[in-house]
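Page 42, continued from yesterday. The earlier attempt failed because a stray header line got pasted into the input along with the sequence. Redoing it now with the clean sequence only.
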Amino acid sequence: MSNQERKQQHIYIMLGVVLLGAALLFFVPPIAQPLAYHNFADSRSIIGIPNFMDVISNLLILFAGSYGLKLLLDPRDGVQRSHFESSIEAIPYITFFMGAVLTSFGSAYYHISPDNFSLAWDRLPITIMITSFLAAVISERIHQKTGLILLPLLVGVGIFSVWHWHQTELAGAGDLRLYLAVQFLPILLSLYMLFFLRSRYSRGDYFGWAILLYALAKAAEIFDHDIFTLLLQWVSGHTLKHVFVAIAVLILAEMLRCRIPVNKVQQAVSELDDY
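This time it went through. Structure tokens are written below.
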């Protein structure tokens, strides 16, 4: 079986997973937002800011997202010229880092006054990050144009998932199903591609580290109160969630700064062999 045939086989498998996930949405009953979600472990107010640690830790995400944008948009860094085969491949990453910057503001706004309304502004940019991440992986491991074409569609589905959840909450019958699918299906598909499809660039393992940190962030979110107790009420799980997300964003920024196209690596190896 040729490499192209294997790639097509993997694409069909992923399409099957997406269709299966879409079908399951119709069989799983609507999932409402538990109000207990807003009761975070660390509710301390410092210098007049409620839930201070969960609010202020978003500065780390803001820094990470801004750093990524600077690498891509500052012509002095030259990332677009030397670290992409085509400069348009930077678009999913620009979208991702913009999502990170917006997430820092949306999350800070939410944690100052946690409720379902402010939560929508927290979740909206998170979906932009997750869906643009998937588009970037598709662009580098399946086909450049496919990832770029899918980017606005994926981001649109992510935004719609938050809008749908928020509207159903307002109607008194909250439904998180689509939002949860957007949260986890892109990560599952990205992991599959990391294992079975080669990247056109070096440092592809950085994607795996970013996904691992995302998993740690979700675990810290779930065990918010337990971690707060374990760490003697110094730092809560939700604050650590923000730290893990910021590190994941920085890792992807560093990946772009350090990587080169694989064909350049192969060319360099060939030249050494000839020498």
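Notes: The chain has twelve helices and no strands.
Reminder to self: strip header lines before submitting.
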